[in-house]
Amino acid sequence: MTDHRDVFEEVEQQVGAWAETRSDVHGVLAVGSRARADRPADAYSDLDLTLFADEPDRLIDTDDWLHEIGPMVLSFVEQTAVGGWRERRAVFEPMLDVDFSVVPSALLDLDFAAPSPVTDMIRPVIDRGFRVVYDPRGKLQTLNDMPPRQFSEWTPPDEPAFTNLVVDFWYHAMWTTKKALRGEILVARQCLDGSMKDKLRHVIEWRARLDQPGLDPWHGYRFFEARTDPDIVEKFHATYGAATRAQILQDLAGTMDLFGDLARTVAVRFGYPYPERAETHVRVWIRETVPDTL
């Protein structure tokens, strides 16, 4: 079997060669898992490339240029994970996933070693690792001069924010139950696995930060399993099931139990009162409303 590092290195070289033929592309930078040492790429990782172009929208809004790089299977546009830019995702034969973030070439004139809104925003990405693919003017070399990111002490949510999240969770536990009982199965599943699970994720992250000062939580669910207590991971995974009324209500019960346990623990460690009234009333209502036959 071909080593994934070799095939993606070839794609990277093809992009560099393509950039040399373009008068509107002045730099290419590799970031992400294929450029970092911490949690490096595996066979399932994509290649993240940042293009510095005179007209970013031209490359984002069309995909004809991708055929100049290699045999392209598909491509589409979405928002970048950080930065508020857009990226064009592409898949090349044989199913090689490449993300092209396209940013203004004017950014190359920045002094990356000097603090600024842009450098502060990209610093977390750069700190995890980068590799210069194409840099005819030598502008990207200054990335090596960026001072290491200073990890500031984590600031936990204040009491109103904590209370609001907890009460919001319990409200939607009631709301999800109503939707499931009405027969709006997909709406109930969406709320349970979307809004409610996201609030549970926040509580899990707070607990992890309290247990591991200096923890880098990445973003969203990235590396969730690797940075979270295995017992919590197992219980969290168990709350995902089929789109049936009975399964949703069962998964909801598991989600409520896990959230309640963790949120209480976090409340004690934050020194905040836990909004017992909200949880108690919702649990009693669900217990009295949900038919025993479900």
Description:
Helix 4 packs antiparallel against helix 8 and helix 5 runs parallel beside helix 8. The chain is built from nine helices and six strands. The chain has a six-stranded mixed sheet. The mean pLDDT is about 90. It has about 290 residues and is of the alpha+beta class. Strand 4 and strand 5 form a beta hairpin.
What's the β-strand tally?
6
Q: Provide the CATH top-level class of the largest domain.
A: Alpha Beta
- The low-pLDDT segments are none
Q: What number of domains?
A: 2
Number of helices: 9
Radius of gyration: 23 Å
Measure the end-to-end span.
50 Å
CATH architecture of the largest domain: 2-Layer Sandwich
Written as H for each helix and E for each strand, in order along the chain, the element string is: HEEHEEEHEHHHHHH
Class per helix and strand makeup: alpha+beta
Share in helix: 40-55%
Oligomeric assembly: single chain
Average pLDDT confidence is 89
Percent of residues in beta strands? 5-15%
Spatial strand order of the main sheet: 3-4-5-2-1-6
